[in-house]
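User: I'm new to structure prediction. If I give you an amino acid sequence, what do you actually give back? Let's try with this one:
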Amino acid sequence: MSKTDPLQPERCAELLSALAAPERLAIVRLLAEGQQNVSQIIEALKIPPLNVSHHLTKLKIANIIQAKKTGRFVNYSLCEGILEQINTSGTIQDALNLGCCQIVLPAHAS
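Assistant: Good question. You get back a string of structure tokens that encode the predicted 3D arrangement of the chain. For your 110 residues, that looks like this:
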């Protein structure tokens, strides 16, 4: 009788690989604050448009973000269940719940 590994190593590696670029981590961090369109992401992160498109595609394929067309804009947001709030040492922080692991997002500097 074979037991399924709850870690799901292949899926976990796929998710971590999708996050393994500074630009993608910055996009996820920005989307943790709320939905954004491509123009807003480009302006906030100062990433060239072609690069933003590439990074958004990688994050969408991994089911970390989702896209919703509103009028002539496509708004991006984190997929349902990815962002959660956790209590660490009495402090509420945002964390990415990847299913296999959590990534705690550091608080923004004030």
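You can read the tokens as a compact description of the fold. Here is one thing that stands out. The chain is about 35% helix and 25% strand.
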